[in-house]
Amino acid sequence: MRVLKLLLLSLSLFQPAAAIADAGHQAFLDQTLADVRAKDQLPAAAVMIQIDGKTVASSAQGLRAIGFPEAVTLRDRWHLGSDTKAITATMIGRLVDKGLLRFDDRLQDLLPDLSETMDPAYRTVTLRQLLSHTGGLPPLTDDADLPEFKRIIAKSKSVQAQRRAIASVYLAKPLASPVGEFSYSNIGYIVAGAIAERRTGKSWEDLVRQEIFKPLGIQESGFGLPGHAKKVDAPWGHRESDGKLVALSPNDPEGQDPPALGPAGTIHMTLADWMRFAQDQLDGVHGRGRLVSAKTYRILHTPVSENYALGWGVKLDEQGMPLLLTHSGSNGHWLADIRIMPKHDMIILFVSNAGNDAANRAIMDIGKPLRDRLKPFD
User: Fold this and answer.
1) For 296-309, how does the pLDDT look when each residue is reduced to its tens digit (9 = 90+)?
2) Are residues 119 and 193 both part of a single domain?
3) Burial classification of residue 259, based on how many CB atoms lie within 10 Å of its CB (0-12 exposed, 13-18 middle, 19 or more buried)
4) Based on the domain organization, do 243 and 303 belong to the same domain?
5) In whole angstroms, what is the distance from residue 249 CA to residue 52 CA?
């Protein structure tokens, strides 16, 4: 299993046209998505484009699961993988605004009962560093890392206890990379989730529901894989075997990530609900976001190292304002990609129920024709 690999495939900018709902945009997207899905042999894919707060085009095409007749719809839920990280970071931003946490709090103060056992180099690592992948923790992005992870969480029954066990064990190990150096880490986000749980007494799942979903009116969402094993009522992920894609039912152990991994990447939701979160992030750049303070949005969107902020890949303009907020997420069986362009009030969401190399290529295959079409008029 490729766990939640970061897919910052491109920081190229879209240059959108006027925000006018256009039947031409819809027809172009339908045809482009059909062409790309056929070229890259995806079971299904969906795209939603929003400009100035209006959906100008959206399309969902293909099968929920290869070998079954059910087609995907725009109402379906999709696994977001590591695009969960921006949601986790924003939830923690809400706790910061409430005075429950500070981004520059140190691990020895956030987890005082682990201070004696944690490697001394971790004691001064901050919450900001955990959320920007500069805290020195290991990646947990390779199948070879998973057996130890599963052995650790198997010793605890509750998911909260499992996350706390992960923090205890991994913080006692030597640094996996120098503090301050960008090194993508799912473990870092799990530790950040455990910190939020310790400080509030609530699970990460309940905190996300309370601090993100409820204020934004997000209702078609959840944790883990969407759908059920006994009926194909949602897209299923797909694994590649002998050059062919095979559908994985939601209860197939191969397709599941442990719930303890939640803060790093287990959320699923519809494109419409994901767009609600994306729009709030865009609004936050312009000083009108609903979830956190203007100061906290700036922290969430300001790169710490190598164009990575807190849950976002970021490209800034000359004034230091975000031109692009982006991230991709995949557990190897799904793919989700988000592009927010605040200067032009434009958002593009892409999802697929495959996470192989062809699905990764599809992001670029979709992006170029859209970029060419949605440029300013001469």
Assistant:
1) 999 999 999 989 99
2) yes
3) middle
4) yes
5) 38
